[in-house]
User: Fold this.
Amino acid sequence: MFPPKSPSKNKLMVVQSGASALLPALNVAAGLSRSLLDILTVLSPVIGEGGVVALYQRSLDISGRVFPWLAPPEECYRGGMDLDGLKLLVARQIDAVAVAGAALLLKTFHDQLAALVGAEVARQLIGASPGAESVVDDREKIAARIRRLWGV
Assistant:
């Protein structure tokens, strides 16, 4: 179930324990970009920048099956990781969709890395998967986890 929305299209009202907090899609986009840049920095010496880019592109392909707006045009694949383009894609979504899409993309990236190097090594390299909970069934928990991870 989605959290209740505020009147503004670009604000999401997340209600937890009687308190509410705003989670704008722009913050989600910035946090996702920052997280992916951190992942690129950590993983590049281990699997190379090309390996990170390949995992990113594969993760976009898989996540784009659930959230078609995450499947960018072909030209986005030619220059590596177009994080500015990704930020624009995420920021254009309503907040609930932005949070769910960002969580799915990061979880998919983590899962792809874990398939290659093992879950424990992936966890040691880039931390626990932010969407370890079910993305489809428990969006409120994922939104709370994203807020904690990204400080929004």
Q: What stands out?
A: The chain has five helices and two strands.
